[in-house]
Give the backbone structure.
Amino acid sequence: MSLSQNLTTPISSSSSAFLVTTNFFTGVQNVQLPVKKIGICKCVAAPQEQETIFKTNVSRNSNIAKLQAGYLFPEIARRRNAHLQKYPDAKVISLGIGDTTEPIPEVITSAMANRAYALSTQEGYTGYGAEQGEKPLRAAIASTFYKDLGIEEGDIFISDGAKCDISRLQVVFGSNVSIAVQDPSYPAYVDSSVIMGQTGQYQKDVEKFGNIEYMRCTPENGFFPDLSTIKRTDIIFFCSPNNPTGASATREQLTQLVQFAKANGSIIVYDSAYALYISGDNPRSIFEIPGAREVALETASFSKYAGFTGVRLGWTVVPKQLLFSDGFPVAKDFNRIVCTCFNGASNVAQAGALACLTPEGLNAMYEVIGFYKENTEIIVDTFNSLGFKVYGGKNAPYVWVHFPGRSSWDVFGEILEKTHVVTTPGSGFGPGGEGFIRVSAFGHRENILEACRRFKQLYK
């Protein structure tokens, strides 16, 4: 057999090919193969082809493109995470995002657990429910929060939270309406308006969007706008107690607001998410004001009452007396949007909400609210002792601290860097919030005390 013949034998990529019996050298002796000199081998990388990115022919929503940076609270979370990467051993205390921290009372969770367990039985299983919510819960909300105010079970729509309902309401109103917001205010009002196409472009020089009426709320006007200076708009977003300032509107102020809306034919979207924090005689519902059912609707939530920030359960009240300019009921259009965009709130969450409204559940909720209100007192006392002008805290779980002449983002950064405490910069709530920070009272007591100790160390 010649050498060339033997070289035709196939060799596997596995080493096992060299373990089989072979006659490769049979009858061949003193075979010499020519040896080549080995030189230096240069490897030259071939130029890579530029990766081609496929793009569709669908244009981006130009309204979303108007939005400035990210939504406020995810941006705060991003900066918090960056801080933790820089200081991995730091004990960061979060008093920024208004997220509840205390356990949900057992009288409420046991009702949810029972409802969840019932779903595993033939008798207790339910599928889709009514998009508007379960009748017993709607009736309980009406009797608990709106007794003698002319609000009926059928006016109430159960949802997965007030924030979600704000966006659904924006779909009802459409893109051809004008809006007014408190300045400062919860950013969801402005951002959802921008997304819907209700606004003009962002004006960097004044830090405002065009076609929005910013109703300035300052310490000088008691955080209630001078309505004589406000232009007429179709929709007025109003939150009381206010997030972020913590200010609660008086009966006289809300009467002015309702009269202003009637005179202009406007609709008030009244956000009462913190109503149970109110101490004293200030109204907990816009419907305590005569005539409000003709010009207002109201959103509310169990998030800050029962710790439902993760459970997700809220409601919106749309009175049958609230009509569009053509006489068509706003509630019917809202019902149409709800039925189209929403399959109803979780049946387990609704069981928990119903338990909240029992005598035992209400007492348990008020205990949790009382705990957070004690936290606000500690924070208010701390900043007062340091000589700051402090607002809010009495009727809301937020404390609004003034740092005159300073950028609120700079103050946020200073506090985070030097105390490892997360707050919220006031300018994130609108230009009227510049120079302020919001400190949330949602926190374990030991964290509140430790954060205040650090504040005193920084600003003593």
